[in-house]
Structure formats: C-alpha cells, structure tokens
Amino acid sequence: MTDSDATAPGAAADDDAQDDTTRSSGRRIKLLTILAVLVASALGFLAWSQTWSTLELSGSESIAASITVPGSIAAPALSALSLAGIALAGALAIAGPVVRLVLGVLELVLGASVLWSSIAAAADPVAAGASSVTTTTGVAGSSSVRALITGYEATVWPAAAIVSGALMLVAGLLVIITVRRWPASGRRYQAVVFEDASGARSTDPGDFFDEGSTAPAPRATRRERSDAAVDDWDDLTRGDDPTR
User: Fold this and answer.
1) Does residue 113 contact residue 166 with C-beta atoms inside 8 Å?
2) CA distance 207 to 203
3) What is the Cα–Cα distance from 102 to 96, expressed in whole angstroms?
4) pLDDT tens across 156-177, in order?
C-alpha cells in the first residue's frame, strides 16, 4: 500500500469536515442575518404603535390642553415599511442567490425610508403632530397650529424608530455581503428535477431524449378528452358512426 493510498481517507475526511464547518457557518450567518432583518422591522412597527410626543396647547390664558401624538400620526408610513421588512425576512429564507441580492437592495431602500421618515418626525414634532392638533381644535394651517403650541415633550420612540432604520440598513448590507456564503434553499422550494435510469438529472425532461429519437406522445388532457366526446356525440346526432 502506497503512502498516497494511506493518506487518501484522511484527506477525504478532512475535506468532509471542512465542508460541514462551511455549511454550518453559512447556516449560522443566514439565520443571524434574517433575524436582524426581522428584529429591525419589528422594532419599527412597535415604535409606530407608541406615543411619540405630547404637545402643549394654549388657546387663551385661561385654556390649556395637551395632545398626545402617536407614531401612526407622526410617521404614518412606518407601519407599511416595517411590515414590508417582516415579509422580506420570510422571503429571504426561501429565495435563491440572485433573488437574495435583490432583496438585500430592497432592504436597504426600506431602511433608508424608515430612517428618513423617523428623522423628519423627530426633528419637527410640531409639524409631525399638526394633524392631531387640527382634529382636536379645528385649527388648520402650519402657522396657525404653531401659534397654538407652547411646548412639547418627546418620548424615546422616535429614537427607537431611527435605530430601526439604521438596523435595516445594516441588515441589508449583511445580506448583500454574505449572500454567497448562505446554504442552498431546501429542495421543496427548488424546481422539479428529473432523473433517468442512468442517474443523470435535469430540470428539463427533453434533455433525456436524443435529437433523433421520438419522444412518447403526451397523454390527452381531461379537457381534450371531453372535447372529443362532444365531437363524437355531434357525429351521432348527424347520423354518423364515430367508431368507423
């Protein structure tokens, strides 16, 4: 027995162990990336459902009131963007490599949109809550609404929404950078693969026929059989025997 024969099993075992380690690392990266997308989107949706600020209003010296502004008023687009991110996390779990790249770019767009919407609302709570003021007081117009507001108090949820947008951006970058290391999707999500007697596989059944060979005639569909039966019945009504 030569030295190469002795070392071959050991080298094969090392290669198998390395492949297992690579697959395990890829699965871990895929899981953590999808989890990051999901957590970032869930945080954005949670922030959207909370109170973002409290506006202090004064119509006169004897009248004072406060109005709470929820995230659904301050940043109404946040819910749709966050739900899209949650759906994207599910799509990443079953998508192929090319689609994952597209989804990674889409996650970047969603993160930038969440970030822009959140920063705009946090930077100007008065403008973000103007519709709530109009609904409560009946006063409309930017200058008129600002004249009614004597002060405001912001909560932590606008900052949480900003963090959500930043995390979505990071998650999108992770998808794009690490997508080639992800393991392949499960077989139930892949195209149907045909296999002939020799073990050759292909997604196109035509590959198993030679150019000069004749493929078996396809079986008639149920609709075709039904149409043929109707034609036979029509022949009978005209006095013709369809069996001849």
Assistant:
1) no
2) 8
3) 10
4) 999 999 999 999 999 999 999 9
